[in-house]
Structure formats: C-alpha cells, structure tokens
Amino acid sequence: MKKTLFPLVLLSAAALAAENITGAFGLELGAVQDTSNLESTCAVKGKDSSCYKEYYIKPPSPNEIFTDYTVTLTPVSNKIMEIQGFNTFKGNCNNQTEALADAISKKYGVKKERVKPSTNLHFKISKGNNEIRVICINGKRESQMQIYYVSKSMHKLSDKEKETLYNEELEKNKNKTDTSTL
Q1: What predicted TM-score, i.e. pTM, was given to this entire model?
Q2: Rg of the Cα trace of the chain?
Q3: Would you say 138 and 112 are in contact if contact means Cβ atoms under 8 Å apart?
Q4: Residue 164 three-state SS
C-alpha cells in the first residue's frame, strides 16, 4: 500500500508545483491594455471587422522562437483576452511545434491534447480557465508556427460586452426610425 501511495504523492506534489497559465511574453491575460501606441491588425477598421480589437504588440519579454506578436482585447474594457506569437519557417514546422507543446505541457504540469480533426498540427494545453494552443500551418515552401494564450473568462466577458454594445446600438436605431411614411 505504501509503495503505491508514494508515487501518487510525488505526482500530486509535481502537479501542485507546476505553474498556472496566466499569460506570456511579459503580458498577463485579463490585464487592461493601453492601445494608444498599438497598431491594429485590421486592414478594415470598425466594430464589424473580424479582427476588431486585435493589435500588434512588442511584448516586454519576447521569446526568441517568435518574431511577431498580437493581443486580442475585450471590446469595451480592453482586457487582454488572447496573446499570440508567430514565426515563419522554411519547410515544415511539425517537429518544432511538437517540441514546444511538450515543453509547455511539462512547464504547466498538464498533458497536451492533439486537436482533431485538423489539417494542421494543433495541440491544446488547458489548465483552469486558460489554455494554450500551439499550431503549425505547413505551406509548400514555408510554414508558420503559432502560439495562442487564451483566457476563457475573458472570452465570456467579451461576449457580454459585445451583447451590451449591440443592444445599445439597437436602442439608438430604434429611436431614430422614421415612421412618418409607414
């Protein structure tokens, strides 16, 4: 009995010692981000754009693996909802992506999960209310490795903020409707 309990105690201690997923590159998920000096990733600006509230950023602590970084913010409170890192490789990035997913899995003390079906190599590491996605998108001549740090609670907040904005817009338009010719 004692022999089987000892490894369980060690595993539990290792899991407790592992870090929580709070952010990356010196940025914290859920933190308010000042956008005054950030460049939008959107070619088309505006609330209806699919990249609305996504910005290029120079993080305080970049990692040598990635060359470009973005953050996605909640629509009203400007809280960091996602932190992304990107890098382009010549050839295939499957080996680097799997090695990175293994290192992250070890750091946070949770197993990586292969996301299927996916035409790209895609791993997910989830812990608590946050997750990390490590993705390799292979092209003919080059490939792109991407990492996403995602806050599920900030996504929920974003949905609530979007709903509030939508309802406010509806209310404004309702009061402007010309009914004189109806």
Answers
A1: 0.81
A2: 21
A3: no
A4: helix
CA quadruple 49, 51, 52, 58: dihedral sign: negative
Q: How far apart are CA 101 and CA 147, in angstroms?
A: 9
Each residue's pLDDT, cut to its tens digit, for the chain (182 residues) gives: 444 443 334 344 444 457 899 999 999 999 999 999 998 887 655 555 455 689 999 999 999 999 999 999 998 899 999 999 999 988 889 999 999 999 999 999 999 999 987 778 899 999 999 999 999 998 888 999 999 999 999 999 998 988 888 887 777 777 666 666 77
Token pair of 163 as six digits = 């709903």
User: What are the residues whose beta carbons fall under 8 Å from the beta carbon of 82, sequence distance 6 or more?
Assistant: 29, 71, 72, 148, 149, 150, 151, 154
